[in-house]
Design a protein that fits this description.
This protein is mainly α. The protein contains five helices and no strands.
Length: 104
């Protein structure tokens, strides 16, 4: 549950992690008990995880291709401001951007 707490701001990833936790629990319970119904529950939850991850990946791919948000993925905070804001918002704090060195 710690990983889900860390990714709460990145809602698409958070949904994938939260959907996968019960799937792994059902899979572990099926492995321990061998109860057939737990195998079905685990498989159904696995499909839910696959659909959630597929939606998130497809939404991000469309956004990358079009340069704008097409499908909602639940951005919040600085990520939402960067996508919805203007160029000034995106260029704020360039010294902290990925790939920028602190010293040479």
């Amino acid at each position: 549950m710690g990983a889900a707490a860390v990714t709460r701001r990145k809602r698409a990833l958070w949904f994938v992690l939260v959907a996968s936790l019960p799937r792994w629990a059902a899979g572990a319970a099926f492995g321990l008990t061998g109860a057939p119904w737990l195998g079905h529950v685990s498989g159904t939850l696995g499909l839910l995880v696959a659909l959630t991850a597929g939606y998130a990946a497809f939404a991000l791919m469309l956004e990358d291709m079009r340069g704008e948000e097409v499908l909602p993925i639940g951005r919040s905070g600085p990520a939402h401001a960067a996508v919805e804001g203007d160029l000034a918002v995106q260029l704020r704090n360039p010294e902290r951007a990925a790939g920028v060195r602190r010293t040479l």
